[in-house]
User: Fold this.
Amino acid sequence: MYRSSSFNFLWINLCLFSVCILLTPGWADDSSISSPKKSGKMGALGIVLICFGIVAVSGLSFFLYKLWLRRKREEQHARLLKLFEQDDELELELGIRD
Assistant:
């Protein structure tokens, strides 16, 4: 179960990364998208910003995934406690407890 969840998370991030790479000017196959007059600094700045954005989105999605896992675990724990909690009314009705 853990491996499939982490595999799905990795697959989604890989797809997002590939889309971002294709949208980056100069890396796409279509030469009309990239501007030949663009200086090297602006191209490097764009790459740095794209990489920063990818890291930020990956970090945020990892954080949200861990938060979702924690809430799911708390719900399961609450269900388990509810399942095994002692029901005083039921015990009184059955005559088990005075």
